[in-house]
């Protein structure tokens, strides 16, 4: 009689410097948009969970803020989120941008090699890299001490099947932590706030995006298929407020229109999104403001 295959499960932390594609990777693995994405460094501010379930395993991914030297209390919170995500993890994925590997990447790879869990090094964005350069890059990491080096493209999906197969084999036997249809533990209000912030990151330039926070003031379900959402975008300077609003309100309208589209897809409802912009000087260094906007260590 054939013995039933053991179920495997575990928490796998995704780490790397800012802007290497960690959130894009998790969204691709989970199959849903659970983390916002932009080309701005430090887009991810919280530890975000995504769940991938198959017949004989369940992998719980923890997407983390990019590893950097913090300059504000918000930055300190972000780095604390990384440390918390590594507590009790069952595996680790260390991600580098294969098109722009620098000393910071290599120092992170070296530091994470000491973690006593199964770990894989992921060389992302291979769709933008010539094959001979990829081979040279793989060779340069040959002695990194990881269980595997896997070239991937989070954007095209190349290498992701090999990645999940490799990690699943290294998970411990364990229970199914979450239902099959659950893909994230993010509260709905936080996802909505992040979708608004994502559109601001997409359209705003220079230092303005880094000083933005979003608070959901209310989510009022008017009927089975309609919801009204009120949200405030906070910035740190009066000059930034004018930029966010734009000429005759054009920028704020564009942010709101694009965010509303994503929110409607998320909630499967028609949405009336109302946005306000307020100035909160130096909010990234004020603990009460950080807590209000959801940046508080567990």
SSE map:
Blueprint: E1 8-15, H1 22-30, E2 48-54, E3 57-63, H2 73-86, E4 91-97, H3 103-112, E5 119-124, H4 131-140, E6 148-151, H5 160-170, H6 188-203, E7 213-223, E8 226-235, H7 238-245, H8 250-267, E9 270-279, H9 287-292
Parallel strand pairs: 1-3, 1-4, 4-5, 5-6, 8-9
Antiparallel strand pairs: 2-3, 7-8
What does this structure look like?
The protein is an alpha/beta fold and 298 residues long. Helix content is 34%, strand content 23%. It has helices at 22-30, 73-86, 103-112, 131-140, 160-170, 188-203, 238-245, 250-267, 287-292, and strands at residues 8-15, 48-54, 57-63, 91-97, 119-124, 148-151, 213-223, 226-235, 270-279. The strands form two sheets. Strands 2-3-1-4-5-6 form a six-stranded mixed sheet, sandwiched between helices. A three-stranded mixed sheet has the order 7-8-9. A hairpin with a 2-residue loop joins strand 7 and strand 8. Helix 6 (188-203) packs antiparallel against helix 8 (250-267). The longest helix has 18 residues, at 250-267. The termini are far apart.
């Amino acid at each position: 009689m054939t013995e039933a295959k053991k179920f495997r499960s575990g928490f796998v932390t995704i780490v790397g410097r800012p802007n290497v594609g960690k959130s894009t990777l998790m969204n691709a693995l989970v199959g849903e948009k659970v983390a916002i994405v932009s080309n701005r460094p430090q887009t991810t501010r919280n530890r975000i969970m995504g769940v991938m379930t198959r017949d004989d395993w369940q992998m719980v991914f923890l997407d983390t803020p990019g590893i950097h030297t913090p300059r504000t209390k918000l930055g300190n919170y972000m780095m604390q989120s990384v440390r918390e995500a590594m507590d009790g993890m069952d595996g680790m994925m260390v991600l580098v941008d294969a098109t722009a590997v620098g000393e910071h990447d290599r120092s992170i790879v070296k530091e994470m090699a000491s973690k006593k869990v199964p770990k894989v090094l992921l060389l992302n964005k291979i769709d933008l890299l010539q094959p001979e350069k990829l081979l040279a890059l793989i060779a340069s990491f040959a002695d990194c001490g990881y269980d595997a080096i896997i070239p991937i493209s989070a954007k095209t999906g190349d290498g992701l099947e090999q990645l999940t197969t490799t990690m699943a084999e290294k998970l411990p036997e364990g229970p199914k932590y979450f239902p099959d249809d659950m893909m994230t533990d993010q509260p709905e209000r936080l996802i909505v706030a992040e979708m608004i912030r994502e559109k601001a990151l997409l359209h705003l330039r220079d230092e303005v995006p880094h000083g933005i926070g979003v608070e959901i003031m209310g989510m009022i379900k008017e009927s089975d298929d309609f919801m009204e959402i009120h949200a405030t975008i906070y910035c740190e300077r009066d000059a930034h407020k004018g930029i966010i609003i734009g000429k005759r309100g054009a920028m704020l309208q564009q942010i709101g229109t694009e965010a509303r589209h994503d929110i409607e897809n998320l909630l499967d409802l028609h949405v009336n999104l109302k946005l306000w912009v307020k100035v909160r000087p130096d909010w990234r260094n004020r603990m009460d403001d950080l807590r209000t906007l959801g940046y508080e260590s567990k």
